[in-house]
Protein 1
Amino acid sequence: MSQRDQIIVAVTGASGSLYALRTIRAMLLMDLHIHLVLSDYARVVINEEVDLNLDFKSPLLPQFRKLYSIPEGKGELTDYPLKNQAAAIASGSFTVKGMVVVPCSMKTLAGIAHGFSSNLIERSADVQLKERRKLILVARETPLSLIHLKNMTAVTEAGGIILPAMPAFYQKPQTFDDLGDFMAGRILSLLGYDQTLFPKWEGGNK
Ligand SMILES: Cc1cc2nc3c(=O)[nH]c(=O)nc-3n(C[C@H](O)[C@H](O)[C@H](O)COP(=O)(O)O)c2cc1C
């Protein structure tokens, strides 16, 4: 295995696929090794929301390199089929720095909150919780039902972090990518990295 930090990135079918793409871009540029799992609906929503013509039947790393001008040798990405629960990342013996589900649908949130482990995303998240490793769920839905809120509470009580897909505006975003980078930056900070995607708040003038 490479000497790079290993991070699991799962993408599900909630709105906000741009958050996932900007997170993947930032992690590759930071020379991390991404272990990527996409749900079936993640593919549907990505195609619906962004016009990037990603070909999910071909290796994704070269496509990300081209899309975001990421040099060869910078970062690594391994992708896994959703149904492959025999994948390395389904085991606690595979050491990773943490896992992020970005964006996280209410369906996957429910599966994680109740320990279903019914696919590789839910199983890997379950593993991070049992191993007491960092698990970040970029939950996205509005409005929220009591069921959603209770599931978020359950994940929080189990040690996971709910990072709502709520970009801030004090950094004066000019583009959608700026909004995506805000969430990517928050994810990286929670994973323990110094992020430079948006300026830190230095305090007000008054
Ligand atoms: C365009 C589109 C946007 C969606 N946005 C959301 C959303 O923001 N939050 C959510 O919980 N589900 C959303 N859904 C529904 C999920 O995709 C659906 O519940 C799916 O079964 C989630 O499965 P997954 O978690 O395995 O990806 C959306 C679906 C579509 C087609």
Protein 2
Amino acid sequence: MVQPFEQEWAIQRRLDDVFAKVGEKYGDLRGRVEVKLRPDVSFDEVGGLSAAKATLRGFADGLMNPDLYHRWGITPPRGVLLYGPPGTGKSMLARALATAAGAIFYHLKLMNLTSKFGANTGELLQEILNIATTEGTAVLFMDSADGLSLEHLLPPPQAREASARLVAALCEKFDALDESARVLVIASTSRTDAIDPSLVAPGRLDHLIEIALPDTPAQQEILALVQRRAEREAGRPLFGPIDERKLLPLVGGMSGADLAEIARRALEAKVHLAAAGKEAPPVTTDDLLLAVEDHKRVRGVVEKIRYGQYL
Ligand SMILES: Nc1ncnc2c1ncn2[C@@H]1O[C@H](COP(=O)(O)OP(=O)(O)OP(=O)(O)O)[C@@H](O)[C@H]1O
Ligand SMILES: [Mg+2]
């Protein structure tokens, strides 16, 4: 339910207070946990992924109106896992679900949380779940849930043991969630191999939704959305007519994040022109083609850095 304004600041103050206390106990949570009372990404801003969007819209309806499920003799979903390659819109979808449900959005960055709190992250997550269940309709986003494997912190045998404990604490909390709690836990990962199978058992993150790389029509949609978003921000047209027959064959296999980055690079080139006092006309197809080249070059370097060698 969308919170009326006067309730909103009361909730905000309560959340600030509780998180300040949690922070005192565990240490600074900034950059690790973010809470948004009124998330503002909508499903209409997510390109492609129509099946995933339809399913998640249904979950938003279930959060707002659990009776929809009860009428069919079942309880609303409690947990969802979005899995797929990086940059495909998983985080956007989680936010959009919270927006559609008028829910408070708790963004838990599990890589950052586990890096600081290690195996104690379980206790902290339990505490946050407690807060979420008492403060009104909530979407709890466990971003990069593969962070729970603790592989980035400890050698494999220790990581396995500590992670099992951490996941068990979380599952315990999951199983104890009150049926009337208006909370949906939504986890995301680009590494399904690092997700503990007990997390995806029935009653936990038992709705598995693949978020794949966009095909060409989805890429077209995403490019249009990315352009419109920049133009809305700037309050003026920024792109000329784009010849997609030239552009699309060069971006096959790229994610939404890649496409957003390409558009950003093309716009950045305009910023540089304008800053040098030169004329900066709207972005053309050729500008985007240059940006694609540039992006591919940078991606190549990133790969070399990651693998420490020239392939
Ligand atoms: N399907 C999409 N529609 C529109 N924009 C998209 C889409 N996918 C990605 N983007 C763009 O890429 C950015 C990153 O997307 P997002 O953070 O949702 O990806 P992700 O799947 O969560 O990635 P990661 O696995 O790295 O966390 C978005 O802010 C948006 O600009
Ligand atoms: Mg993400």
